[in-house]
Amino acid sequence: MASRSLIILGCGTSVGVPMLGCDCTVCRSDHPRNQRMRSSVLLKLPAGNLLIDTTPEMRLQLLREKIPLVHAVLYTHYHVDHVFGLDDVRIFPKYLGGPLPIYCTDDVEEVIRQAFSYAFHPGNDDLPPGVLPKLEFRRITREPFSVLGEHLTPIPLIHGRFDVFGYRIGNVAYCTDVSKIPDASWPLLDGLDVLILDCLKLGRPHPSHFNLDQALEAIARVRPRQAYLTHLSHEMDSANPPPLPPNVALAHDGLSFEF
């Protein structure tokens, strides 16, 4: 079987780390793993590269990892830190020879069409490649679907007041931005080798994200072989990480593994 790999392009919270205006130990740290771009991953698959979410640092993330081309984009939800790098995908259709496939729910498509309305004006087809994003929306629901020849299963999650998706491909699941896992979603996490899970902070629970205790409780229930904590705020110090079980680690930008 051809190899597949996952790269964590960013594991930071919505404001990134360091955070603007903050003088805390982590934000002043020179430890490389305390430098966190907004949360996103890339799947390197036999048929091409699948990008999950387009963060504001998307261009920098792809350049850092020497990823020259994305063949499809998949969205977890429509919040700014997961969508607003979308304009920078406009170079990819030039090399693909056609629109870039965008896999998302109807509410994500609606926000993209509003936020990037200039990309959908009549007459844009006459513009040369690379001037504007040329996108082809492919609607997804809670049903499993295929991208680049791979079978993916959406994992419905609660993110504060929002319904969002995590995704499972093979025995790997990516679940960023979650404050609750619905009862019906737990079976979708059975038998995982790797779980990448939201863990914003220490201490008190947050209305929209797992804190460390909640994340560890979920990991103990799922029992993956390995878990990585992502969407980390400046409360999570990679230079002095909190005590974690042997199969749990803080993610870091650039972390990668084959599956």
UniProtKB/TrEMBL annotation:
GO molecular function annotation: hydrolase activity
Domain Metallo-beta-lactamase: 37-231
Domain of life, source organism: Bacteria
CDD domains reported in the protein's UniProt record: metallo-hydrolase-like_MBL-fold
Keywords annotated in UniProt: Hydrolase
InterPro entries the record matches: Metallo-B-lactamas (IPR001279), RibonucZ/Hydroxyglut_hydro (IPR036866)
Pfam families: Lactamase_B_2
Protein name: MBL fold metallo-hydrolase
Lineage of the species this protein comes from: Bacteria, Pseudomonadati, Planctomycetota, Planctomycetia, Gemmatales
